[in-house]
């Protein structure tokens, strides 16, 4: 599938992915991409965040591909369980947070720590770093297998965000192109 043939929904995590983040750069570069805007990027309430993504999926006019990072991964996964069948065709998931990281923060609703291990109803890829401070490697690997996601080892890449040197993230864009080609 070509990016021009679908609606790419960019789903950031807490903070909303700033101007140097790869999600922001992809949104600017890919004409069919648009960010799902949460009402409060600094206080994540699971029910609200998931409902916002669900509404964006329903409003999309073409097949949907989700591009999620960090807490956006868990938001996307929860929204997928409620999405109309056939509306979402793929999910590209990067650097999900683990339960310990979620429960250690006051700005994240602890309901996010209840991570479903049910298989995702769409083709998906999960990319994780071996030294992500927010998710142990084995937790990310377990999640990928539970969800039925292709699992990609990003090596020692931190949280795969602008703070870890992944502003433009050309390797990620190449992986995304490969993912899209298989849809």
Describe this structure in words.
- By secondary structure, the protein is an alpha/beta fold.
- The protein has a single domain (3-181), classed as 3-Layer(aba) Sandwich (Rossmann fold), CATH 3.40.50.
- The protein is built from 6 helices and 6 strands.
- The chain has helices at 22-29, 46-59, 71-80, 99-103, 137-147, 170-181, and strands spanning 7-11, 33-35, 64-69, 88-94, 123-128, 150-153.
- It has a 6-stranded parallel beta sheet with strand order 2-1-3-4-5-6, sandwiched between helices.
- Helix 2 packs across helix 3 (71-80).
- The N and C termini lie close together (5 Å).
CATH architecture: 3-Layer(aba) Sandwich
The rounded distance between the terminal residues' Cα atoms is: 5 Å
H/E element string? EHEHEHEHEHEH
- Characterize the main sheet: 6 strands, parallel
CATH superfamily membership, which one?
Answer: Alpha/Beta hydrolase fold, catalytic domain
Shape: globular
- Helical region count? 6
The counted number of beta strands is 6
What is the alpha-carbon Rg in Å?
Answer: 15 Å
Side by side, the strands of the main sheet go: 2-1-3-4-5-6
- By secondary-structure content and strand pairing, the structural class works out as alpha/beta
At the third CATH level, what is the topology name? Rossmann fold
The first-level CATH class is given as Alpha Beta
Give start-end ranges of low-pLDDT stretches.
none
User: Which band does the percent of strand residues land in?
Assistant: 15-25%
Number of domains: 1
Q: How helix-rich are the residues, as a percent range?
A: 25-40%
